[in-house]
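Subject: for your reference before the review

Hello V.,

The reviewers asked for a structural picture of the protein, and I figured it would be easier to keep everything in one thread rather than splitting it across files. Below is the amino acid sequence we used in the manuscript, unchanged from the supplementary table.
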Amino acid sequence: MIKFFGKCVINLWLSIRYLFGGNSRIFHILNQAAAISFDSLVISLVIAFVAAAVIAIQVSKQFLMSGAEAYVGGSIAIVMIREIAPGFVALAIGARAGTAISAEIANMQVTSQVDAIKTLKVEPVGYYFTPRIVASAITVPMVVMIAEVVGILGGLLVSYATIGLHPARYTHSVWLWLNARDIYISLFKAFVFGVLIALVCATQGYETRGGAKDVGESTTKAAVLSTVYMLVADFIINIIFYL
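And here is what came back from the structure prediction:
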């Protein structure tokens, strides 16, 4: 794990140097943005909506019994923005797009396409990693923002359907509890998660050697490692901003 973390740091540095060296092309970044986040948008929003609906079902009746139903909206908004939306969306994108990144780069490695790039005097880490890292870092926060809105609206619908909570009381609670700081931290989390998804999965794919079987194993490892790294990063960010 320590050795792999060191490789990730080195690859991140090479990617940053490649980016600021003016070698990246906006066309490549846009292609990766579509493959990473746009193609994962529907599943991310479905997950956010269902998660908010489940939370609303769990808390609505309990709040109603204690006479605190006016705070349902605020509770759901805080949970969605602080944790559920960035965490679940990142996991969904990592499972879908992260594994695809790992498989693609691993396949290039085992079929000697990476060696061919080296013969052209092109830095392979910068060439393969930079568009994916930049695209993921920019677009994952965008998906998270949309997921937060969808989640809060999903909580509103379920609260109205289960306990008849008026939308005005729900939204008033949301605005009362909502803090701009929470939104900034949520987007920062999404940014970090986006970088980790692309960096960890691309590094795992780049380190693959062997054949088709190794590509499959590398893809599985990429999914596990990206999840672990995101959970650790989430823990550290929460300690820094909320402790």
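For the response letter, the relevant points are probably these. The chain is about 85% helix and 0% strand. The CA atoms of residues 57 and 162 lie 7 Å apart.

Happy to draft the paragraph if you're swamped.

O.
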